[in-house]
Structures are given as structure tokens and as C-alpha cells.
Design a protein that fits this description.
- The protein is an alpha/beta fold.
- It has a single domain, classed as Decaprenyl diphosphate synthase-like (Undecaprenyl pyrophosphate synthetase), CATH 3.40.1180.
- About 45% of the residues lie in helices and about 15% in strands.
- It has 8 helices and 6 strands; from the N terminus they run E-H-H-E-H-H-E-H-E-H-H-E-E-H.
- The protein has a 6-stranded parallel sheet, with helices on both faces.
- Helix 3 runs parallel beside helix 5.
- The chain is globular and about 60 Å long.
Amino acid sequence: MKHVPQHIVLFPDGNRRWAKNKGIASLEGHMQGYKNLLDFSEWCKNRGVKVLTAFGFSTENWNRSPEEVNYLMKLLESCLVDNLEKYDKEGTKVRVIGQRDRLPESLKNAVEKVENATKNNSNLFLNLAISYGGKWDILNAVKKIIYDKIQADQINEELFENHLSTAGLRSPDFVIRAREEKRMSNFVLWQAAYSELYFSPKLWPDFSEQDLDEALEEYDQRHRRFGK
């Protein structure tokens, strides 16, 4: 394979649908989805991907039932803390982007603990979006620029990107979305302006290592022109 995307964005969709098809509780679908995300990050690392940005919980997801929201918050916390040894062993650097002020205190503490413990790792950068929205990210960048009192004639794309939550990361090369929903759903709207898009018919818990290879093979065959 000649071209491997260095930054992949992942929409791990279909956890609830998967659980419904299996006749089990939807919360179990989320659990299986997060287990698959851990495997997916390792598959990516083994193929030379350097950055993985995964949608964990959107700003819109706060509108779900309190039971589901509470479960997801606890699941995200355990996903971070319980796998700290695994992240460190595999050289994975973990960072969380999104509205941290809305998160439960225990999850905030877990985020800080894992980020500090893995900050020097360099094999894979796992960027988890929790309480994240693309519109929020853009508006937040605007607010930071205003707060910093930067003059209008000094603002360019590079400066703006340095005020986004993904500051310091290269733009995503490849967006993979499970469940075949063909939309960006308010995720990395600015960052994915020239990303290649791939939609898989698989529900996320069923997405396999072979499915990743098929996606990467298609990416390898595409010709990225960036408008040229």
C-alpha cells in the first residue's frame, strides 16, 4: 500500500441498532462499540496511522435519556482509566476534545489522569471527542480570538486552526463512518474540509480489521487534488 492516511476520523455509529438486532439492551451495544474502538486503534497503529480522532459523545447526545447519558459517561470513564496500562504499553497518547465543563467531575479527573500519564507516548495519538460539536469548536475558536484581542487583518486560516480544539494536529486525511450514514453530523467541520470520505454499511460493533483494510485499500486508490 503506497498511501496510508496519517490522520483518520472515525464515526463509530450503529451501537444501538446492533443491540436491537441482537435482541439485547441498547446499553450493551455501547459497551461492544467501545471494545471495538480499542481494537480499531490498535489496527490503525499497526498500519502506520499516526492520529485517530474518534467521536465518543456529541453535544447533541446530551438530549438522550438521562439513563443512557449517565451510562455513557461512566463507560467513557472506565474506557479511559481501565485501559491506561494498555495505552501506555502500546505507546498511545490520549487526549480528549470537547466541552469539559459539562462532564461529571469523576470523568474530568479520569481525562486529566490519562492525558498526563500518556503525554509522552508517540506511537499513536488517540483523540477522543466527548461533548464535542463542530459548530461549538468553530464558535469557541472565534471566542478565543476575540478574547486574545487579535486584529482582523491578522486572522488567517493557520491562526484560526491554532485556536481549534485540534490545534497542533494535521488535518484529517480520511473519514470513516460506520452504518453508512452519509453526513458529517457536526463533527470536525472545519478540519475535514478536504478529507476523503468512506461510508461502511457495517454497524460499528461488526466493523472488523478486514473492513479497515478494505477502507484503506480504497483510500490508496483515490487521487487527492485539494482543488488543484
